[in-house]
Specification:
The chain is mainly α and 309 residues long. It is built from 7 helices and 6 strands. The chain has a two-stranded antiparallel sheet. A two-stranded antiparallel ribbon has the order 3-4. A two-stranded antiparallel sheet has the order 5-6. The two termini are 13 Å apart.
């Protein structure tokens, strides 16, 4: 065989391999529906696809955190709302008591029991747990944040989890802030005001005091001496304020969820454009590759015949 024949043969072998690889690639694309069968098919598209998949994995991780946080926030908002509603009912009774007093000892006992029961109810809501985790105890989650007398025994440090890049939201709360604890006594302000009322009623029933003290008695709240109703209002307004704070956090979660869902759909569409093949395009490419391969064989055969001749 002459040198020119060897060159032609080598050239044919190279082109033959290229055409066969093309046919195999397009055949696999049609069979699998994927355009990127290996990183070498398109390095840039492969890197972009991997980056988008990593972003989607982060979105899914944040999504799981969001579901957990929203469950906690919903529970916290419900408990604070229960405390607010109970406080509003108690306030009505306090005002009635201040304006009309008590007709007799029986009325006084009924009111006393009402205030005590409502105090216990409020403390129970403040000690609410999800599973075995007290959500208003800060990082101290295994014990009740509030003692039976309303003293705060939780921690001021809270736990948070990331729900988006640079955004963290609470999974436990500093009960001293969210439920309103008197910095002087370390007791819940609402229950401290109730205790003061109950004490005055008890002494009035025992004959050692007067219900008139309800209008003059004061409580030192955060360093300021205020009357009972004003103290109660400070505690109640504090709970209402932080109920709104939690409501804002819930709205943040809902907005982030919506944004993440849209981003994930958009990323999936981009990944599909990068990785998935279009059937018509793949078939056309396969047909072109087959025609090119047939033309290569035909040209080689013609040249070989000419050379032999």
């Amino acid at each position: 065989m002459r040198i020119t024949d060897l060159l032609r043969y080598d050239n044919y072998i190279k082109n033959d391999q290229i055409r066969q690889n093309e046919i195999e690639k397009y055949t696999r694309q049609i069979a699998s529906g994927k355009k990127l069968l290996s990183p070498s098919d398109d390095t840039v598209a492969t890197v972009a696809s991997l980056r988008l998949k990593t972003i989607n994995q982060d979105i899914e991780r944040f999504g799981r955190n969001m579901d957990f946080v929203q469950n906690v926030l919903d529970s916290a908002e419900t408990q604070l709302d229960s405390i607010v509603k109970a406080g509003q009912e108690i306030r009505v009774e306090i005002i009635r008591l201040l304006n009309t007093g008590v007709l007799d000892k029986e009325d006084a006992k009924v009111l006393r029991d009402y205030f005590v029961n409502m105090k216990d109810y409020i403390i129970k809501q403040a000690n609410f747990k999800i599973g075995d985790t007290a959500i208003f105890g800060g990082i101290k989650t295994q014990t009740d944040p509030f003692a039976a007398d309303g003293t705060y025994q939780g921690e001021t440090v809270e736990t948070k989890v990331p729900v988006a890049p640079g955004v963290e939201l609470n999974t436990t709360f500093n009960g001293a802030v969210y439920i309103g604890v008197n910095s002087v006594s370390n007791k819940m302000i609402i229950t401290e005001a109730i205790d003061k009322i109950v004490d005055i009623i008890d002494r009035a029933i025992a004959g050692t005091g007067s219900l008139g003290e309800l209008n003059t008695a004061t409580i030192n709240v955060n360093g300021n001496n205020v009357k009972i109703l004003e103290a109660f209002d400070i505690g109640l307004n504090n709970v209402m304020q932080y109920r709104s704070v939690i409501g804002t956090q819930i709205k943040t979660i809902q907005d982030l969820k919506s944004i993440n869902e849209k981003n994930q759909v958009f990323n999936n569409e981009l990944i599909s454009k990068l990785e998935d093949t279009e059937g018509a395009e793949a078939i056309t490419n396969l047909q072109k590759a087959q025609l090119a391969y047939q033309a290569l064989i035909s040209v080689f055969n013609q040249n070989r015949q000419l050379t032999l001749l």
